[in-house]
Structure prediction request, 943 residues.
Amino acid sequence: MSATGIGAAVRRKEDQRFITGKGHYTDDVSRPGQTFAYFVRSPHAHAKLHSIDVKAAAAMPGILAVLTGQDLAGDKIGNLICGWMIHSKDGSPMKMAPHPALAATKVCYVGDPVAVVIAETLAQAKDAAEKIAVDYEVLSAVTDPAKAKSAAQIHDVAPKNTIYEWHLGDSKATDAALAAAKHITRIDLTNNRLVPNAMEPRAALAEYDSGTDSLTLWNTSQNPHVARLVISAFVGMAPEHKLRVIAPDVGGGFGSKIFIYPEEVVCLWAARRVGRPVKWTSDRSEAFLADAHGRDHVTHAEMAFDGDGKITALKVKTIANLGGYMSTFSSSVPTYLYATLLSGQYAIPNIYCEVDAVYTNTVPVDAYRGAGRPEATFVVERLVEVGARELGLDPAELRKRNFIKSFPHQTPVIMAYDAGDYLASLKKAMELADVKGFGRRKRDAARHGKLRGLGYSTYIEACGIAPSQAVGSLGAGVGLWESAEVRVNPTGSVEVLTGCHQHGQGHETTFAQLVSERLGISIDQVSIVHGDTDKVQFGMGTYGSRSGAVGMSAIVKALDKVEAKAKKIAAHVMEAAEGDIEFRDGKFTVAGTDKSMAFGEVALAAYVGHKFPTQEIEPGLKEGAFYDPTNFTFPAGCHICEIEIDQETGETEVVSWTAVDDFGTLINPMIVEGQVHGGIAQGVGQAMIEQTVYDKDGQLLSGSYMDYAMPRAHNFPAFKVDTTETKCPSNPLGIKGCGEAGAIAAPAAVMNAITDALGTEKIEMPATSMAVWRALQTMNRNQVAAE
Amino acid sequence: MLPVSMTVNGKAVTATVDPRTLLVQYLRDNLRLTGTHVGCDTSQCGACVVHVDGAARKSCTMFAWQAEGAKVTTIEGVANGEKLHPMQEAFREHHGLQCGYCTPGMIMSAIDMVNRKGNDLDDNTIRHELEGNLCRCTGYHNIVKAISAGARAMKG
Ligand code: FES
Ligand code: FES
Prediction:
């Protein structure tokens, strides 16, 4: 291992600009003559839109344009789309309703944009927006997914507000196994709706160049090339080669910045109409109404056990809320990212899952850190824990009995797990968490009036998204490969162009570590270029813990080609046979001689071209590659949470957290640990405090940081984080991915700990101190009644 | 419109602004000091923390004119030339940042925390003092480590 190579906890290269205030986020970009956009949003959850009177607004000072959905339609700007086709059980395609960037005939959620004001200053735009009169006919609204089917129909294309009724697995075999079971554990769960809340609000800045008839968009995107493709091919804004999308530094995404949103479409369109750059920056309250939310499932599930505590079947019925319109990848989240992981770490012979996706009058719902996999883990890990309690078995023991122990393992729900050692991570986590000493800690806590509980979550996820062939057969509209280009400069420094996008993951460091390892040069000699469609060849962006497993594998392929060509060049310059050239530690050597050339010398030779026949070898040293994975990767591990509850007040505190994860090869353990920490915090936030509340009319009650609880530093203890390692066999580096694990594992661990402490299963996420206190009161009342 | 003058990162600056202009807007839009960020509109995230006359202030909660005559320091002004402030170094050394969006506010709050509470800060104190700063990326673990180490380094 070189000092800056694979496995080294190298300090991050990108940090210099962030710690000195020199980061370059979208809102930091300003263009000469730029104007400001302000969106007028529906105050109603469900209404017909009869007319919009913009005259008074347009006459206000500083106003350049006031545009509505009618104008958008008049200019033939197309609708936003959902890019993953799901078919219902009966074979019918999902019911995708039209989603214009500005609503023209009806609004479907509070926050649905109906008009935009473009002005010289933001204050002028806001003032003018107040003068816009919109004539709404309010309709009855529904926000609860469980009630959507019987509510007023939102879209003409979707009777009963049903988008699809999908299923996976063998229904008959699963029912038969349930009928033959020794014991069945049943559970009803709500996977609470979350607001992603990346700290940088979304923003878009669009500029039109009439000289070249081309558009440039700076935006807060996790996948600028995909944004360009959708805005070009589907929305029809401009041909792809006339649209440049730049996603500079992005302040966190967690999924919410994958999607193609109305605001960026409108800014591009408006910039062309007014002939000046148009900038929009969301404020936080607007973000609550405008950024796709996450989760929001209602589930009933049953797990069957035989007499030995072996799981024989799992049956799951889920209603998934997709909100007012179908967001970019929304359809895939509660289906192929969810039901395919319901086998967890266990050998379960029979699984059947039904998912009904519904429209409601709420903000669209799409992928949020983990996307479907946290929901699956929550179902499986809650069932296993409750099952153990009902069977009177130790929850770790029940897990051990059911772990998959040999690989590859084909589950009944599509996935073929390739490698893992679930016992190893469980054992290591139990030691680190001192599970043996838990009884003593529980007694100590009791002496102080506290209930102490311990909860496990042995999770699995499918990452490295994704093999194109597999996802194509499941309905994806795109392939999910990744690209890389390695450019060696004449002086031996290197630029790597990647289709991945970093928004906190540290690619500028980890990708450089790979190059350092392979070429024997320092990471300071390497730059990572990403996030600009004019610079980088096509790429699919960053989400689904894919950048290591897929993005770096593409870099490996390109580096292989660079090395092969460099060897040719070295052979010519040193007058040796190509087969005799060895490359190690940044040096090309002629085997068995003391003749050698440093990497930089070969790079220079490649460009000056003096010493080799350019008829046989082209000058230059630059190679590109596209890498398409052959399988998903399967990170897995064990998280153990201990909590304490104050019996008087219900105050609930996470007092200890242990995580042992198997991510395969670690490129930079420091960065990996950071990813785990952040994921845990989001998962604990979901389990304990984060709650999105709509009232019955569809008003978002938790619409700011005053009402939506965000995790803060004092909500957590220090985390104990460690790893085990089985290499991923399907990619050249053996990487599995680490970005989502914490958020996937954590909710079940927390809820298993809280229910363990309370001695009741009757509590839902978020288990706030108030909810815990209520559960305690109910138990006390029931106890008194029983006595 | 209103004239304002103050000292920002050691330089005297004067401008005429709309009285509604927040200090953070003045810093970002007029002075192009974009290291100070805006993460919310309810004064709860701390992405906008700067020092006004030596004390941490959320620059989204005051108007530019309220800083009339004040000495303002932003993240761009804490390093000593090329030499980083020990708290900046500590954030890098302990991986106290991921996307970097909360970082300027975190560093400014952390320096203020040390100024108020001294160089030996236990984790519990740091966690409670961070009440006004949100980070969605790091789970705070490494921010706490960074502040603890940065506080000690500021002694020297
Ligand atoms: S922007 Fe000032 S506290 Fe959030
Ligand atoms: S590092 Fe991203 S919000 Fe803190």
